[in-house]
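Pasting two entries for a bug report.
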Amino acid sequence: MFFDRVDSGDQAILVHINFVDASEHEDPDEFLELVLSAGVTPLLTINGSRKSIHPKSFVGSGKIEEIKLAVESLDANVVLFNHILSPRQEWMIEEELGCRVIDRTGLILDIFAQRARTHEGKLQVELAQLHHQSTRASGGWTHLDRQKGGVGMRGTGETQLETDRRLIDKRISWVKAKVLKVAAKRAQSRKTRVKSAVKTVSICGYTNAGKSTLFNYLTRSSVYAADQLFATLDPTIRRLDIPGLGKVMLADTVGFIRNLPHKLIDAFKSTLQETAEADLLLHIVDCSSPDMRENIVEVEKVLSEIDAHEIPCILIFNKIDNLPDRQPSVEYNAEGKPIKIWLSAKNGLGCDLVDKAILDALNDELYEKDIILSPKYGQLRAMLFDQNAVVAENYNENGDCVLSVKLQILDFKIMLSRASIDPSEFIEQIKEIYEK
């Protein structure tokens, strides 16, 4: 319904205003990247400064005149604001300029609409668009907002505004139901992973920090990666084998950005649950960005919103190829847990450090012993190999298998249970893990 982009043209005037209030600050360079990512041709950027937002026109009557002249002289057909406009402001500016006006939120939603590929992604984007559109419906139909009373002045029934709102609400309910159904399937997949004791590691970070590039390197995948904002929208999960730890699931998720629309966060809740319920977060940071610290703060804000701020996290400072004096390295805290990694995913420089860091971060209690398995324990042997927990394999004179294993104690206990092994038959070899 609202998923298709509105054919409003690609020739744009950009508007960026510096406000005294720091809370209204937006990055003009990032805005230009957003515009280019949306496939729009920027004709001119109009800058300005104000102490506060004008309640009606946002920028004031003088600046509106300047924008209008630019639209007419350059034959632009859309004006993009690097700010969040109220529905009323957006409608009034459109009336003054005679062309389409899109704010920062609308631009981000448009980019998401272009990038969504999976059924789930498209549903989530449409839900966010519908919520955004529902607030905009009131501005453009104020002349139909209420039927007048009196003889000859009564309306025929439902107004156009009421019809629009009813149709939007109906569509929202339908899309929500579909999203919940897809979310249930995703939750079931997570439940299965938890039951099988498979750890989940989620890659998160500011948009265009290099998340998908690192994901591709680690998993030998070919997820779309590009030097543009929101190159990845649909979440991807791949298996990653960590020596000494076994199988983990690595999730690549959508990037964050300043003032990410709350409705977009709400719509993508099921996708973001991959991050919220992960055992470990890899927070990818573009260490060559001048806004590196601010970007870290913005990501931490979103992590807090989805209740993922207490999950163990490793900061991965990517793109060290842009910093000539920086070499690949890992930093550890006082407990011996990795907290920072410096690498270049593009060149693969230092990426080999990530596997070891994941192992060190998730290895709380390791079982590292030699165990003897008679032929009847073939299922357990297969499970140990499947988890990459076998360091070496030999055979004794009786033909029994002698395995040198290294894996987490919790994983070993679950394996024994799944293999239906009676602990009393096996207790002498592994009794120490039952005493923990």
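Entry 2 (this is the one that rendered wrong in the viewer):
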Amino acid sequence: MTILELIEKKKRGLELSKEEIEYIVDGYTKGRIPDYQMSSFLMAVYFKGMSAEESTYLALAMRDSGDVVDLTDIIGTKVDKHSTGGVGDKVSLVLAPLAAYLGAKLAKMSGRGLGHTGGTIDKLESIPGFKVELPLQKFKDQVNKIGCSIVGQSGDIAPADKKMYALRDVTATVDSMPLIASSIMSKKLASGADAIVLDVKVGSGAFMKTVKDAEELSKLMVQIGEKAGKKVTAILTSMEEPLGHKIGNSLEVLEAIETLEGNGPEDLTEVVSVVTGHLLKHAGIVKNFEEGYKLSYQTLKEGKALPKFYEFVKEQGGDVEFLKDKKNLYGTTKIHVIYAEESGYLETLDALNFGLAACRLGAGRETKDDVIDLFVGLDLHKKIGDKVEKGDKIVTLYHHEKGLKEAIDLIQKSYVIGPKKRELKLIEETING
């Protein structure tokens, strides 16, 4: 076979075999297929699509282009979750100790933030001493010992995906469902878990803007996971507004602790409980999702999993005493408060712009090489549907002067107070195999 023949085949909308897709991925990764031919192939996929089988073959070929983590010496079912990215999404920080406390084995490799979406690894690095890089054996030993570990993704995980994504980024082929699904699942499949829950964000602050698109992506990722022999569930969760109240690395660690104490925001508590409920079902710890959800929610509300969080932090070198004095998580930031100029209800709150405002303050990266400020960010005092009186606090900005005016300007045009009390649907849909 030749790459030219395979481009022609996909251009005509024909289905490629496992061997043909492996030939393309291996050839491009090793430099035998040049960028211009791979660009042509990606554009053919963009216009003609791929079947679930082709998408699975692509995900598996990208998975096998690098290291595939072997977690077989972790006792029990290994579980993992993945979020497609949003604003204020600190679910992993709460879920890891909660799932471990309830008996699951969560072995998670996470990424850093880019743009308006935060990264779990950056958040954990706001804890002094916390090690996000561990030798593989120590990572596995820790999961066996305490039930959870979160580390940064290895540079050797799915290198074909990294190379192909960089090309997609400059050839206008990023927004292709088969390519998105295969990209996400190649990394998840390489991470070694037996069961995966996908938290697919939908709304203004998410990559998927509509329920229809999020549903299509979710179904495809679930199919890929199942064809690869994994237990997979996807939930569609709203990102019309930030999750919880706090946006920014150390601030989100603080909110995670508050949630584990039983005093967290209801939307964050709900999403964590839903994801954990599915993971407990997949791990065989509960009979069904409903039992897992109730157990997770009750455990959070009673604050029982908080000691497990501190154990997790200590095990990875983090300073637990620093965390227990919560004012440390504000650093030396200055405060600017935005107040309501009228009364009514908070009708809209643009998650994307609030995420961008946090970026302007220094909480996020515009490029992968940017250095972030771990202590700046936002604290939302009102959420969609809340009653607002003139003079009420809308949001507090924690800053070091950098980008303050830009952040204020973004926020001022990103919420609406009006006469209607709006109810926001948090969980749009659940997709099981």
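Dev reply: Rendering is fixed now. As a check, the viewer should reflect this: The chain is about 45% helix and 15% strand.
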